[in-house]
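Pilot study result, target chain (530 residues):
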Amino acid sequence: MKYIKYLCVWAAALIIISCDDFLGDNENPNTPTEASPEVVLPNALTSTASLTRYFSSTAGWVVGIFVNAGGYGGWGDVVYYNYTTSSHAGPWESAFDDLNNYQYIIDQTEGDSTQAYANGIAKVMRVYDYQMLVDFYGDVPYSDALSGVDNLMPTYDAQEDVYQDLVLTLNEAIDQFQNSEFSNSPEGIDIVFNGNMESWAQFANTLKLRLLIRMSETSLASFAQEQFSGMETVGFITDDVVLNPGYGEVSGQQNPYWETYVQNASGTAAGSGRSSIASEYTYAFYDGTKINDPYRGAVVYREFGETPIGQLGDLNNNPTAPSSPNPSWLSNYETHIGVLKGPDAGVALMLASESYFLQAEAYMKGALSGDDEDAYENGIMASFRYLYEDASGNIGSNVDLDDEDVTVEFDVEEDVAAYLQENNTNPLVNYSLANSNEEKLEAIITQKYIALNFLMAQEAWSEFRRTGYPSVANGSTNPQSTFASILSTSPRADRLPIRFLYPASEFQLNSDNVPPGVDQFTTAIFFQGE
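Predicted structure:
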């Protein structure tokens, strides 16, 4: 959709309900003037799932998840990082489309006890979208935005101010989930937790933890410290947060990751699944170069041990993905476990593994009370569990991993124990080997990077920019030492970009308010480390 975020918020709802979607909306698409939250909410949540895929796919090229396959051209700013205002505009515009829908729900339900659940959910998801926007672009239209025709050219808020307000918004939502009497049940239209408000409170609290961790060593440290208080009483997610509106192998209804990286409903191979291959840098966390992890490696990567891998920017030597009918060389999609579980699989909005790793860092730094090593190992366990599950959430069994009729039954606890034992001298795995908080942080973030691989590259990129982990060798062109493109034009020591640029549509329609002088190599997001 062309740039609509400053049109009236109800227009976004009309756009949604006039789409040919699969949620069974029975509104007349030719004459609507408004839509109920019951109609808008599941559509908005479904859009957020696609948005999560969009942000992850975009960040994946920057943080070492994907590299260019041989035999393809047109890589341009992907490998040179010579971004323009036309580069990576899609996440911005799609996010504001989605935000309009959540704002519509908030406006329609504020103060209505019968719709308190929808109001709280919309607030949480508005935070979810805005956090990704800030992490990509920095300052954003916020306090004046999403107000329709009342303000078509909103000012930009400082990213630090946005982060603070996002935390306060989550506090409001948590209070609603815990203390409101819901006159109307959200069961049936809540395609994430099916009306479980305790789960929504814990999801909101875990999002809050993500924000506070990012703020904790910035100018917002005092605010963050205050906000850590009382978080343990709400609790954090212990299961993966998965959204499924009814995905299936039907045109327009497939899981968005499957549609992007494997094939469409008619079986035509997706170009993204063949033009992109795994990076040597990330693969080294599985194949024994940095960490020995054949367990997750075999379910994440197709033909593990023989997977085509390469280096970003190598236009001459990277392997060429085989031609159709092999849709994807990024993932072991044929097993229907791992990261591509099928066209009918749900989309993870947040992984339980990330929740545990966030807790581990908070415990390690004393921001919360708890056992950091226990949380760290629970994070590894949760990562194995998610990857071993199929689309129904069951642990895979009798899975053919190598196309040679050799089937495997998975045992999460047994394989995690073997993983820890086989890497017991490796400080990136064995947490007890860390001699300092910095070494503990490196282990936590490295394991988080592995858990987020392919699924949520946007979070991996933000954590890399915040902490510098997983570590890269400055100035190196060794593909196992850095994920920077060998064609990088970045003047930074690590040869990487640190943000994306505001899209051309902003300069066309809101030029007086766009922050000037933004550069992808020098204009840092506020939590950016040195």
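One observation from the pilot: Strands lie at 66-68, 140-141, 156-157, 241-243, 276-279, 309-310, 347-350, 399-400, 407-408. A full batch analysis is planned for the follow-on phase.
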